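Q: Here's a chain of 243 amino acids. Please give me its 3D structure as C-alpha coordinates.
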Amino acid sequence: MNFILLRGLIRHAEHWGAFKKQLQQRFPESKILTPDLPGLGQESHAPTPLTIEDNVAFLSAKLSSDLAEGEWVIVGLSLGGMVAAEWCAAAPKAFSKVILINPSSNLSSFWHRLRPEALPVFLRCFITSDDALREERILALTSNLKNKDETLILSWIKISETGAIHRATFLRQLAAARAFKIQHFDTPCLILNSEKDRIVNPQSSSQIAAYLGARLETHREAGHDLAIDAPEWVLNYIKQFVA
Protein backbone atom coordinates (compact mmCIF):
# COMPACT_ATOMS: atom_id res chain seq x y z
CA MET A 1 0.00 0.00 0.00
CA ASN A 2 1.52 3.28 -1.16
CA PHE A 3 0.31 6.86 -0.78
CA ILE A 4 0.14 10.11 -2.74
CA LEU A 5 -0.53 13.22 -0.63
CA LEU A 6 -1.80 16.38 -2.34
CA ARG A 7 -1.85 19.77 -0.67
CA GLY A 8 -4.30 22.61 -1.24
CA LEU A 9 -4.47 26.23 -2.39
CA ILE A 10 -1.04 27.97 -2.54
CA ARG A 11 0.58 25.31 -0.36
CA HIS A 12 3.77 23.42 -1.11
CA ALA A 13 4.33 19.72 -0.51
CA GLU A 14 6.60 20.80 2.36
CA HIS A 15 3.55 22.14 4.19
CA TRP A 16 2.63 18.54 5.07
CA GLY A 17 5.33 18.99 7.70
CA ALA A 18 5.43 16.19 10.26
CA PHE A 19 2.35 14.50 8.82
CA LYS A 20 4.29 12.63 6.15
CA LYS A 21 6.66 11.17 8.76
CA GLN A 22 3.74 10.26 11.00
CA LEU A 23 2.04 8.46 8.11
CA GLN A 24 5.30 6.67 7.31
CA GLN A 25 5.49 5.46 10.90
CA ARG A 26 2.02 3.95 10.52
CA PHE A 27 2.95 2.37 7.18
CA PRO A 28 6.73 1.71 7.36
CA GLU A 29 6.81 -0.41 4.19
CA SER A 30 4.88 2.08 2.07
CA LYS A 31 6.17 4.54 -0.49
CA ILE A 32 4.79 8.01 0.23
CA LEU A 33 4.92 10.69 -2.47
CA THR A 34 4.10 14.35 -1.87
CA PRO A 35 4.20 15.97 -5.31
CA ASP A 36 3.75 19.70 -5.69
CA LEU A 37 0.95 20.98 -7.86
CA PRO A 38 2.23 22.82 -10.95
CA GLY A 39 3.32 26.35 -10.14
CA LEU A 40 4.38 25.58 -6.57
CA GLY A 41 7.42 24.27 -4.74
CA GLN A 42 9.52 21.92 -6.85
CA GLU A 43 7.14 22.59 -9.76
CA SER A 44 7.30 26.40 -9.53
CA HIS A 45 8.70 26.52 -13.08
CA ALA A 46 5.51 24.95 -14.48
CA PRO A 47 2.52 27.12 -15.47
CA THR A 48 -0.36 26.94 -13.01
CA PRO A 49 -3.32 25.28 -14.80
CA LEU A 50 -6.68 26.98 -14.97
CA THR A 51 -8.52 23.67 -14.59
CA ILE A 52 -8.41 20.79 -12.15
CA GLU A 53 -8.29 18.43 -15.14
CA ASP A 54 -4.99 19.92 -16.27
CA ASN A 55 -3.56 19.52 -12.76
CA VAL A 56 -4.45 15.84 -12.98
CA ALA A 57 -2.87 15.51 -16.42
CA PHE A 58 0.35 17.10 -15.14
CA LEU A 59 0.62 14.83 -12.10
CA SER A 60 -0.44 11.71 -13.97
CA ALA A 61 2.36 12.21 -16.49
CA LYS A 62 4.85 13.07 -13.76
CA LEU A 63 4.09 10.02 -11.63
CA SER A 64 3.25 7.44 -14.29
CA SER A 65 6.26 5.25 -13.58
CA ASP A 66 5.58 5.24 -9.83
CA LEU A 67 1.91 4.40 -10.27
CA ALA A 68 2.74 1.52 -12.60
CA GLU A 69 3.87 -0.58 -9.64
CA GLY A 70 1.98 -1.52 -6.49
CA GLU A 71 -1.29 -0.41 -4.94
CA TRP A 72 -1.89 3.29 -4.34
CA VAL A 73 -4.10 5.40 -2.09
CA ILE A 74 -4.51 9.10 -2.82
CA VAL A 75 -5.10 11.66 -0.07
CA GLY A 76 -6.12 15.20 -1.04
CA LEU A 77 -6.61 18.20 1.24
CA SER A 78 -8.88 21.02 0.05
CA LEU A 79 -7.85 21.86 -3.54
CA GLY A 80 -5.78 18.68 -3.45
CA GLY A 81 -9.04 16.86 -2.76
CA MET A 82 -10.51 18.24 -5.98
CA VAL A 83 -7.49 16.95 -7.87
CA ALA A 84 -7.77 13.56 -6.17
CA ALA A 85 -11.48 13.28 -6.97
CA GLU A 86 -10.96 14.25 -10.61
CA TRP A 87 -8.07 11.79 -10.92
CA CYS A 88 -10.24 8.95 -9.61
CA ALA A 89 -12.95 9.84 -12.14
CA ALA A 90 -10.48 10.10 -15.02
CA ALA A 91 -8.51 6.96 -14.16
CA PRO A 92 -10.82 4.55 -12.29
CA LYS A 93 -8.11 1.92 -11.78
CA ALA A 94 -5.30 4.24 -10.66
CA PHE A 95 -6.11 4.12 -6.95
CA SER A 96 -7.53 1.48 -4.65
CA LYS A 97 -8.92 4.12 -2.26
CA VAL A 98 -9.21 7.88 -1.94
CA ILE A 99 -9.38 10.14 1.13
CA LEU A 100 -10.68 13.69 0.75
CA ILE A 101 -10.00 16.19 3.54
CA ASN A 102 -12.28 19.24 3.76
CA PRO A 103 -13.12 19.13 0.05
CA SER A 104 -15.55 21.29 -1.88
CA SER A 105 -17.21 21.14 -5.27
CA ASN A 106 -19.86 22.59 -7.57
CA LEU A 107 -22.48 20.75 -5.49
CA SER A 108 -22.24 23.72 -3.11
CA SER A 109 -22.61 27.44 -3.65
CA PHE A 110 -19.41 29.43 -4.19
CA TRP A 111 -19.67 31.00 -0.72
CA HIS A 112 -19.92 27.56 0.87
CA ARG A 113 -16.83 26.50 -1.05
CA LEU A 114 -14.99 29.60 0.12
CA ARG A 115 -16.53 31.36 3.08
CA PRO A 116 -17.03 35.12 2.50
CA GLU A 117 -14.88 35.99 5.50
CA ALA A 118 -11.97 33.89 4.20
CA LEU A 119 -11.53 35.57 0.82
CA PRO A 120 -10.40 38.99 2.16
CA VAL A 121 -7.82 37.22 4.34
CA PHE A 122 -6.38 35.42 1.31
CA LEU A 123 -6.34 38.67 -0.67
CA ARG A 124 -4.57 40.52 2.15
CA CYS A 125 -1.94 37.79 2.13
CA PHE A 126 -0.90 38.92 -1.33
CA ILE A 127 -1.07 42.63 -0.69
CA THR A 128 1.86 42.32 1.70
CA SER A 129 5.40 41.49 0.59
CA ASP A 130 6.18 40.37 4.14
CA ASP A 131 6.56 36.58 4.01
CA ALA A 132 6.27 36.23 7.78
CA LEU A 133 3.04 38.23 7.97
CA ARG A 134 1.51 36.31 5.07
CA GLU A 135 2.28 32.93 6.60
CA GLU A 136 1.00 34.02 10.01
CA ARG A 137 -2.27 35.12 8.39
CA ILE A 138 -2.65 31.84 6.48
CA LEU A 139 -1.97 29.72 9.57
CA ALA A 140 -4.40 31.82 11.63
CA LEU A 141 -7.09 31.12 9.03
CA THR A 142 -6.41 27.44 8.37
CA SER A 143 -5.71 26.22 11.90
CA ASN A 144 -7.84 26.40 15.03
CA LEU A 145 -5.57 24.41 17.34
CA LYS A 146 -2.00 25.20 16.19
CA ASN A 147 -2.41 28.81 15.02
CA LYS A 148 -0.14 30.13 17.80
CA ASP A 149 2.57 27.51 17.27
CA GLU A 150 5.74 29.58 16.80
CA THR A 151 7.80 26.63 15.58
CA LEU A 152 5.21 25.87 12.91
CA ILE A 153 5.00 29.52 11.83
CA LEU A 154 8.79 29.70 11.53
CA SER A 155 8.86 26.53 9.43
CA TRP A 156 6.24 27.97 7.08
CA ILE A 157 8.19 31.23 6.80
CA LYS A 158 11.27 29.21 5.87
CA ILE A 159 9.29 27.38 3.17
CA SER A 160 8.09 30.70 1.75
CA GLU A 161 11.66 32.03 1.62
CA THR A 162 12.85 29.08 -0.46
CA GLY A 163 9.86 29.01 -2.79
CA ALA A 164 7.99 32.24 -3.41
CA ILE A 165 4.22 32.08 -3.95
CA HIS A 166 3.08 34.38 -6.74
CA ARG A 167 -0.24 36.21 -6.94
CA ALA A 168 -0.85 34.72 -10.38
CA THR A 169 -0.54 31.21 -8.96
CA PHE A 170 -3.13 32.00 -6.30
CA LEU A 171 -5.56 33.52 -8.78
CA ARG A 172 -5.18 30.70 -11.30
CA GLN A 173 -5.65 28.03 -8.64
CA LEU A 174 -8.70 29.89 -7.36
CA ALA A 175 -10.14 29.97 -10.88
CA ALA A 176 -9.52 26.23 -11.29
CA ALA A 177 -11.23 25.52 -7.98
CA ARG A 178 -14.24 27.67 -8.87
CA ALA A 179 -14.65 25.91 -12.24
CA PHE A 180 -14.32 22.41 -10.79
CA LYS A 181 -17.28 20.08 -11.36
CA ILE A 182 -17.09 16.83 -9.48
CA GLN A 183 -17.77 13.63 -11.41
CA HIS A 184 -19.02 10.41 -9.89
CA PHE A 185 -16.37 7.74 -9.39
CA ASP A 186 -16.40 4.24 -7.93
CA THR A 187 -13.11 4.30 -6.01
CA PRO A 188 -13.91 3.67 -2.31
CA CYS A 189 -13.89 7.08 -0.66
CA LEU A 190 -13.51 8.41 2.88
CA ILE A 191 -14.20 12.09 3.55
CA LEU A 192 -12.83 13.84 6.64
CA ASN A 193 -14.02 17.30 7.52
CA SER A 194 -13.97 19.90 10.28
CA GLU A 195 -17.09 21.27 11.91
CA LYS A 196 -15.30 24.56 12.65
CA ASP A 197 -13.58 24.96 9.27
CA ARG A 198 -13.31 28.72 8.64
CA ILE A 199 -12.50 28.41 4.92
CA VAL A 200 -14.94 25.79 3.57
CA ASN A 201 -18.42 25.27 4.96
CA PRO A 202 -18.57 21.65 6.24
CA GLN A 203 -21.86 21.21 4.35
CA SER A 204 -19.71 20.99 1.21
CA SER A 205 -18.24 17.72 2.44
CA SER A 206 -21.68 16.42 3.38
CA GLN A 207 -22.98 17.10 -0.12
CA ILE A 208 -20.01 15.34 -1.73
CA ALA A 209 -20.41 12.37 0.61
CA ALA A 210 -24.09 12.07 -0.28
CA TYR A 211 -23.34 12.36 -4.01
CA LEU A 212 -20.60 9.73 -3.93
CA GLY A 213 -22.12 7.49 -1.29
CA ALA A 214 -18.93 8.01 0.69
CA ARG A 215 -18.26 7.64 4.39
CA LEU A 216 -17.98 10.98 6.23
CA GLU A 217 -16.24 11.61 9.56
CA THR A 218 -16.24 15.01 11.29
CA HIS A 219 -13.79 16.54 13.75
CA ARG A 220 -15.55 18.91 16.14
CA GLU A 221 -12.77 21.41 16.93
CA ALA A 222 -10.08 21.40 14.21
CA GLY A 223 -9.74 23.96 11.46
CA HIS A 224 -9.44 23.55 7.71
CA ASP A 225 -5.95 22.04 7.89
CA LEU A 226 -6.79 18.77 9.62
CA ALA A 227 -3.31 17.39 8.96
CA ILE A 228 -1.90 20.18 11.13
CA ASP A 229 -4.61 20.40 13.79
CA ALA A 230 -5.53 16.74 14.30
CA PRO A 231 -2.93 14.47 12.69
CA GLU A 232 -3.52 11.49 14.97
CA TRP A 233 -7.26 11.66 14.36
CA VAL A 234 -6.68 11.73 10.59
CA LEU A 235 -4.09 8.95 10.73
CA ASN A 236 -6.36 6.71 12.77
CA TYR A 237 -9.11 6.99 10.17
CA ILE A 238 -6.68 6.42 7.30
CA LYS A 239 -5.30 3.32 9.02
CA GLN A 240 -8.80 2.00 9.62
CA PHE A 241 -10.02 2.79 6.11
CA VAL A 242 -7.18 1.22 4.15
CA ALA A 243 -6.83 -1.87 6.33
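Q: Can you summarize the key feature?
A: Residues 2-242 form a domain with the Rossmann fold fold (CATH 3.40.50.1820).
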